[in-house]
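ESCALATION

Customer reports they have been waiting on this structure for their group meeting. Please prioritize. Original submission:
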Amino acid sequence: MNARHWRRWGGIVLAVALCMPTPALAQTPYPPRYPPTSTPPSPTPPSSYTPEDEGNDERGGNTWLIPAVIVGAMALFAINRHLDAEKTQARDDGEGVQQLLRDGPQLPTQFNGSAFGIRALVRGGWPIVVDYALHRPGRVHLRISLPGAEIVTYRLDQFGLGRHLLRFDLPPFLGDSLKPAVVALTAADPNTGADTVGDFTVHGIGIGPRAVGSIAVDRLEFNPGTLRPRQGETARFAFHSRSDFDNASVEYMRVTQSPDGARKHYVNGQRIGAVRGNSRIVSTDAQRWNGQDETARISTGRHQLQVRVWDDGGDWIGAWSESLVQVR
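Update from on-call: job pushed to the front of the queue and completed.
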């Protein structure tokens, strides 16, 4: 599978600063106790970004791709600038909607887990769910940007430290049709706001009716804990889906922990087709990972499973495993 460089183009971003009071968000205790949802139902890596791509969009914009920055303070600055730039763009959303329906929510091929964005579809009134953990004080924001208005901001750290599963509805003024947007999660120093907080983890985020029911993709597994590819060993993945999704992709991210957040680098991945609701998806022998990157070189270090699922109706989820595979 070859990592593709998506061309960037401008768009409509909505942004209304909301410092959400507690009643505005429906917080669910962890572990979740929602019943499963009952809605019926070729490799595509996350998007990549390189500075030389800037200004090369023949469609007239330069904000389609999310900045692939891994140093915390720089990532925070880049995401903030990207969200602001999105507001001023003008684009035909039809092409972007079709691309995201085809290829799913797009993440950079490298990013900092404490400051990253996702290019994905949103719709007014749709539910959004986020599963995250914060283990030291920080300013945690979930922001959604589509052109033409101020950035919509949800303040999440009001719920305190620990792991939280939040579910709430997107504002109706986002409109009653699918639109491409930038969805960003950041955890910043509570005093300066200029540096990221390292003790922050996003376990999953999703938008759409099929994404909820706690979070509709959970219980991710990635093992064994130690993998020796030179001895012919392979890694197994598994996850649970509460809803039907027309498309799914699994990706392997090399992870290095830094004081400013987990730094994640895309290594390899594969499309695995549709997934059925209320089912456990387990890798077949052919789908197991051999510890190699896209150039068939062994990728040493710690690796995390990243799962993206999306539906032809626009619903989507991104989720990350707690378990890691150490490749030696």
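Sent to customer with the following note: Residues 22-327 form one domain.
Escalation resolved.
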